[in-house]
Structure formats: structure tokens, C-alpha cells
Write a structure and sequence with these properties.
alpha/beta, Lysozyme-like, globular, binds zinc ion, signal, Amidase_domain
């Protein structure tokens, strides 16, 4: 055990000095270790002062297996299993990020089905896309949850995708609903899924805007992603229609986000 610790320490010093990458790659967040962290802190994963440590995602279960096998319940975390480096911990992720000013309803909370397969997103992403669902909107949590389940069933059963397509969804109840979350590649913006995250506002915004609560939730979610190191500080914001032939995220919502500070006029094509 002692030699393993020394080995890990050496690796850390050599490879990630001055960077939070090791922590981010384990799905964690670098923060002051006086803040409570249900998943536990590990040292030498974060830049800065010694008390700035890596808060790992809280996990309810995990098992060690060859990482060429699909990890159905969550993501692979390195450094937790003995043996070869491809023997990694398939961990159930509960982490939705520690966000200010917005509530994220986790997959467990809204009763999501398990994904069929998972690919891990390389973070931080430099692109962020905004969508609308073009379906019903919702102003109370119970209705939003029933819409979430309907969208997940549609994406998994009719479209035959591995999971609900979007990274996150937002309701006019002012909540964010976790889709694939921060750590997984989504199915939302063809050609850009492996380098972006995306939020979809539940409703159809061709002719009117989402309410203020929903718009505030979208902005707070993006800020949360930046603060946690999931989205680059220099991210470029787009509407879905900037990346392909679609009306998404609706003309009225699209015209609004074009006024937001990170909206990019750099062409994606
Ligand atoms: Zn879209």
C-alpha cells in the first residue's frame, strides 16, 4: 500500500503540476477542503494551496473490471483498483456539480432508466449548444418529470439511442433536469457531440421565449459548468441551428441567445 501511494504521488507530481486535470479526469471538483464532500477528498490532484483538494463524485457502488467492458451504471474512475491499468472502477456517479443559484434534479430523483451504453466526454468542452424540445413545456416539477420520462423513452425506444440525448434539460419550473450529465457524450448536436455539452429547454420557442425562471436556470447551469471545470472559460455558445439544418432552439429563443456574451459568430461549418 505504501509503495502504491509513493508511486501515485510520483505520477501526480510528474504529470499534472499546475493543473486540475487529474481531478477533472476522475470526475471530481477542485475546491477548498473545508467544504463537505460526500465522495471524499484526495490530495495532489489540484493546483494551488494544499487545502485545495479534489472532491471525488459521491458514489453508491462500484466494481473493478476491464475498462473495455461497458460501464453501464456510470463512468470509469482510475486509481481505485489493483492490477493492470485497464482494470478500473466502474462507478455509479451521483455528481451533478455543486451549482449556485440553480437546482439540478438528478437522474435518480426523476427516475431515469439506466443507459444502454456510455462514452465518457473529454472535459472541459469548448462548445455549448442550446436546444428546445419542441414539445410541451412544464411549470411544476411533477409535470416536468413526466415529460423527462417521455423524452427518455422516445430517445431510447423509438430513436434507439443509448439514453436521453441532451446533457441537461430545463423546465419552466426553474429546475435543471440531469440528462446524460457533465461526464458523458450526448446525442444532441450531430458532428459536435464529442466536444460539446448541451441543454434543451422543454417547450417550443419558435414564437415566444421561455419564462424568466427557465432562462435564469440555463445561465446558471452554464456558469456552474464553467466554475466546475466542465466547460472551458473561453467556451463558444451556439444554438442547434448553427450546427445543422433545424429550427431548433426556436426562432425567438435563438434571437435571444445571440445577444448573450459567449454567443459565437464563428462559423461551425
Ligand atoms: Zn436541437
Amino acid at each position: 500500500m505504501v509503495s502504491l501511494n509513493i508511486l501515485l504521488f510520483c505520477f501526480v507530481v510528474k504529470s499534472t503540476l499546475g493543473s486540475d486535470l487529474l481531478c477533472i479526469n476522475r470526475g471530481g471538483t477542485c475546491q477548498d477542503d473545508s467544504i463537505s464532500c460526500p465522495g471524499g477528498y484526495v490530495s495532489n490532484h489540484c493546483s494551488g494551496a494544499a487545502n485545495r483538494r479534489c472532491c471525488l463524485p459521491s458514489t453508491s457502488s462500484g466494481h473493478c473490471q476491464d475498462d473495455s467492458m461497458t460501464c453501464h451504471v456510470g463512468i470509469y474512475v482510475s486509481g481505485l483498483c489493483s492490477g493492470a491499468s485497464n482494470r478500473r472502477c466502474c462507478t455509479q456517479v451521483k455528481d451533478t456539480g455543486s451549482c449556485n443559484n440553480v437546482k439540478i434534479i438528478s437522474r435518480d430523483s426523476w427516475g431515469a432508466r439506466d443507459p444502454k451504453t456510455i462514452s465518457q466526454e473529454h472535459l472541459p468542452v469548448d462548445l455549448f449548444f442550446i436546444h428546445h424540445t419542441e414539445g410541451p413545456s412544464c411549470t411544476d416539477t411533477a409535470t416536468c418529470i413526466s415529460i423527462m420520462k417521455g423524452i427518455q423513452n422516445f430517445h431510447m425506444d423509438d430513436r434507439d439511442w443509448s439514453d436521453i440525448g441532451y446533457s441537461f434539460l430545463v423546465g419552466e419550473d426553474g429546475n435543471v433536469y440531469e440528462g446524460r450529465g457533465w461526464h458523458r457524450v450526448g446525442a444532441h448536436t450531430q458532428g459536435y457531440n464529442s466536444r460539446s455539452l448541451a441543454v434543451s429547454v422543454m417547450g417550443n420557442y419558435m414564437n415566444h421565449l421561455p419564462n424568466e425562471k427557465a432562462l435564469a436556470a440555463v445561465k446558471a447551469l452554464i456558469q456552474c459548468g464553467v466554475d466546475n471545470g466542465y466547460i472551458s472559460h473561453h467556451y463558444r455558445l451556439y444554438g442547434h441551428r448553427d450546427a445543422g439544418s433545424t429550427n431548433c432552439p426556436g426562432t425567438t429563443l435563438y434571437n435571444l441567445i445571440r445577444t448573450w456574451p459567449h454567443y459565437s459568430t464563428i462559423s461551425l461549418h
